[in-house]
């Protein structure tokens, strides 16, 4: 909301009910307007509609248009190069170095931008295994991005636990803040900058929800390797005999579709860790591609596009009937649905298995026709 407008929104009276004692001033964010702490999905729905961030479609999902960015801005990602990262990261086109001085200057500008603004906070966990999970704090400018965080990460129901929550890593998402390459040393007006020394990351000038999940995955991908855990971009499911299968593949090759097998229980659809004791999901939700999704061939995922709590990114709908059209790619081929894992009927409640994978499947999508024929 504009910092110049002062009136109550639907969740104003409950904004601080689930707040942590470890406030945002500990992150250097001062002189803010209202901060909404750990709002549940129904309250976030009300805020989304009140703030004109999205629309409610037939049967309950919320529709979001992410604007300019309909996919990740991979070439705008930077990692601060300091003592803990200098010799441990493969620097290059997708791990661009950023100096500590540049980060501090950028964060100072973000601090100034944040003054008198409203923010939403979700305190949650990344990683289902209690031995390896990370306490993460997601601070967002938009209510729908806070709902996205609730869908994708492990939420906390215990009010006392929320009150005493102190994050291990903090992500600040400010879609309204544009970086300036001349001032900030970025490539464009969009930037994703991770600082492992300060345990903080900034996503600037992007409304694409995938930046949140991928930033936290990057954090786990780096930190867990030092705990002898293999981070994996894969989906995973398990049979009745405890036989775990994992599916590796690039985006769009079928990880989510194939792992949602009615005859097997789903552990997760995208990001996992493989430890000495087994496999565990990094997330608590799914972020599925839904372009041309079929009720016949992907019935479980298709059903999730018709549920209250699901976020549909850049999916076209009829404004009169509010019915969605999953075949329309006028905005992007990368239409997405974010929903809690429990929306899939046969999931593993613990989101982990103490069995090692017996089947490892590599999925390919031969767009260029370079693989030999069968």
Summarize the structure.
With 374 residues, the protein is of the alpha/beta class. It is built from eight helices and 22 strands.
Describe the protein's topology:
Blueprint: E1 35-37, H1 41-50, E2 55-56, E3 62-64, E4 77-80, E5 96-98, H2 100-114, E6 119-126, E7 134-140, H3 143-152, H4 159-163, E8 169-174, H5 181-184, E9 191-195, E10 200-204, H6 210-223, E11 230-238, E12 244-248, H7 255-259, E13 265-268, E14 271-274, E15 279-281, E16 285-289, H8 299-304, E17 311-313, E18 316-317, E19 324-325, E20 336-340, E21 352-353, E22 357-362
Parallel strand pairs: 1-6, 3-17, 4-5, 4-9, 7-8, 8-10, 12-22
Antiparallel strand pairs: 2-3, 6-7, 9-10, 11-12, 11-13, 11-14, 14-15, 15-21, 16-20, 17-20, 18-19
Helix pairs in contact: 1-3
Query: Which fold name is given in CATH as the topology of the largest domain?
Result: Phosphoenolpyruvate Carboxykinase, domain 1
Largest sheet: 8 strands, mixed
Q: What is the total domain count?
A: 2
Strand content: 25-35%
Q: Say how many strands there are.
A: 22
Write up this protein.
- With 374 residues, the chain is α/β, with parallel strands linked by helices.
- It folds into two domains: 12-52 and 72-226, 3-Layer(aba) Sandwich (Phosphoenolpyruvate Carboxykinase, domain 1); 230-362, Phosphoenolpyruvate Carboxykinase, domain 2, CATH 2.170.8.10.
- 18% of the residues lie in helices and 26% in strands.
- It is built from eight helices and 22 strands.
- It has helices at 41-50, 100-114, 143-152, 159-163, 181-184, 210-223, 255-259, 299-304; strands at 35-37, 55-56, 62-64, 77-80, 96-98, 119-126, 134-140, 169-174, 191-195, 200-204, 230-238, 244-248, 265-268, 271-274, 279-281, 285-289, 311-313, 316-317, 324-325, 336-340, 352-353, 357-362.
- The strands form four sheets. It has an eight-stranded mixed sheet.
- Strand 6 (119-126) and strand 7 form a beta hairpin.
- The protein is globular.
- The chain starts with 34 loop residues before the first strand and ends in a 12-residue tail after the last strand.
- The mean pLDDT is 95.
């Amino acid at each position: 909301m504009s910092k110049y407008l002062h009136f109550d929104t639907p969740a104003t009276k409950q904004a601080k009910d689930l707040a942590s004692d470890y406030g945002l001033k500990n992150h250097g964010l001062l002189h803010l307007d209202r901060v909404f702490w750990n709002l549940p999905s129904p309250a976030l729905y009300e805020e989304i509609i009140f703030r004109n961030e999205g629309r409610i479609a037939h049967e309950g999902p919320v529709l979001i248009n992410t604007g300019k960015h309909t996919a990740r801005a991979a070439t705008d990602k930077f990692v601060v190069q300091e003592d803990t990262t200098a010799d441990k990261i493969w620097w290059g086109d997708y791990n661009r170095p950023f100096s500590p001085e540049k980060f501090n200057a950028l964060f100072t500008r973000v601090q100034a931008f944040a003054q008198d603004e409203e923010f939403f906070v979700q305190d949650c966990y990344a990683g289902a295994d209690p031995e390896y999970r990370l306490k993460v704090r997601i601070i967002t400018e938009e209510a729908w991005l806070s709902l996205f965080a609730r869908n994708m990460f492990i939420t906390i129901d215990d009010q006392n636990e929320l009150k005493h929550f102190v994050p291990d890593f903090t992500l600040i998402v400010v879609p309204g803040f544009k970086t300036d390459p001349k001032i900030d040393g970025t490539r464009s007006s969009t930037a994703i900058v991770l600082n492992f020394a300060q345990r903080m990351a900034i996503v600037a000038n992007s409304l694409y929800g995938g930046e949140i999940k991928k930033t936290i995955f990057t954090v786990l991908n780096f930190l867990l390797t030092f705990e002898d855990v293999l981070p994996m971009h894969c989906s995973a499911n398990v049979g009745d005999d405890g036989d775990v299968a994992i599916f590796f593949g690039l985006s769009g090759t079928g990880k989510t579709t194939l792992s949602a097998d009615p005859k097997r229980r789903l552990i997760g659809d995208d990001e996992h860790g493989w430890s000495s004791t087994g496999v565990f999901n990094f997330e608590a939700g799914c972020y599925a591609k839904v372009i041309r999704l079929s009720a016949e061939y992907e019935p479980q995922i298709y059903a999730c596009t018709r549920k209250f709590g699901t976020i549909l990114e850049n999916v076209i709908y009829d404004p009169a009937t509010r019915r969605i059209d999953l075949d329309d790619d006028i905005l992007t081929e990368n239409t997405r649905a974010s929903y809690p894992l429990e929306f899939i009927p046969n999931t593993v409640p613990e989101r982990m298995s103490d069995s090692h994978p017996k089947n490892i499947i590599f999925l390919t999508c031969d767009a260029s026709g370079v693989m030999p024929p069968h």
